[in-house]
Design a protein that fits this description.
Blueprint (H helix, E strand, L loop, with lengths): L1 H27 L5 H20 L10 H14 L11 H32 L18 H16 L3 H12 L4 H8 L3 H24 L1
């Protein structure tokens, strides 16, 4: 039974290899519509491969269909660079591009996550911990957090709110704020610390409602 299955698989691979070569020749001769047939022939194997490649990355929004769609377009645009070298060469070529796409998406997610934390976290006073923030793919949750911060800021005095916006959202230094307001740096530092403590208290109160 094992020998029969192995023989059947070998025949299928040989048939696929011959068909791949024929389709490529037709595509190179101008029948671009044949590319869809060529890609579909390899799609099940690519899907299976991606199922395992993406198993640990589903939480960041990587889906098999998304990668396949991007691969379909990318491979078509670069098809002129492919050189047929026998059985399995086209599949190996597709897998190379597939790996690049997956790696690029993982790197993109990592950059977005770093940028998100850098641009939205209030770094002093312990107001919001980094691990409280969602990943960039969770847009709804992200918006909810911004809404919470906005509601808490609205309940502060105008002076406290302005200090926090300047120092923690716009990134203006304490020294620059002191110069703008013509007040001692020490006074600005104390005022900012108190404002952050009030903000933390407001956030805690809103979250318990």
């Amino acid at each position: 039974m094992l020998k029969i299955a192995k023989k059947t698989l070998e025949l299928e691979e040989k048939k696929q290899s011959t068909l791949t070569k024929d389709l490529l020749e037709q595509i190179y001769c101008g029948q671009k519509e044949k590319y869809g047939d060529l890609f579909k022939m390899y799609q099940p194997r690519l899907s299976l491969l991606l199922h395992y490649k993406l198993s640990s990355h589903r939480r960041i929004g990587l889906e098999i269909e998304d990668v396949l769609q991007e691969l379909f377009v990318k491979a078509f645009s670069e098809l002129h660079t492919f050189e047929y070298r026998g059985k399995g060469s086209f599949f190996s070529w597709l897998v190379t591009y597939c790996d690049h796409i997956v790696l690029d998406k993982i790197r993109y997610h990592s950059r977005k996550k770093r940028d998100f934390r850098k641009n939205t976290r209030i770094r002093t006073g312990g107001v919001v911990k980094a691990d409280q923030y969602p990943s960039p793919s969770e847009i709804a949750v992200q918006n909810e957090r911004w809404g919470l911060l906005s509601r808490a800021l609205d309940q502060l005095s105008e002076n406290d709110r302005e200090l926090i916006l300047l120092a923690k959202i716009k990134g203006v230094s304490t020294k620059e704020i002191a110069a703008q307001k013509e007040k001692p740096v020490e006074l600005i530092y104390v005022s900012l610390h108190r404002a952050l403590q009030k903000l933390k208290s407001m956030i805690d109160t809103i979250e318990t409602l």
